[in-house]
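In this supplementary section we document a worked example of the pipeline. Step one takes a protein sequence of length 95 as its only input; no multiple sequence alignment statistics are reported here. Step two produces a three-dimensional model, which step three serialises into structure tokens for compact storage. The input and output of this example are shown verbatim.
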Amino acid sequence: MERKKLVRSVITLGLLAALAAVIILSQNHDPSNPHSTIAKETWINGPQGHGYAVNNNQQPAKQCYPCHIKKGLGGQSYCQSCHDQSGVKVSLPQS
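The serialised model returned by step three reads:
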């Protein structure tokens, strides 16, 4: 009987530790930002970063651009300045 109680206690403590870890780690996560788990430099310039996402996204102007505008991450002039600098020809929606 004592062994069962010990096993239950170990399992309970393990579950509580896991719950505490999840709560602590989730404090640094922004659920409204799908890129929050990736470093900014990796997201912008990495092999599967911004360009990869835009090229492989069905409708980036409808899925990404409105969220970027709403979060104040740069509007048309901000995006266009980078596109001009890199020689990318793109037509952004008018805001």
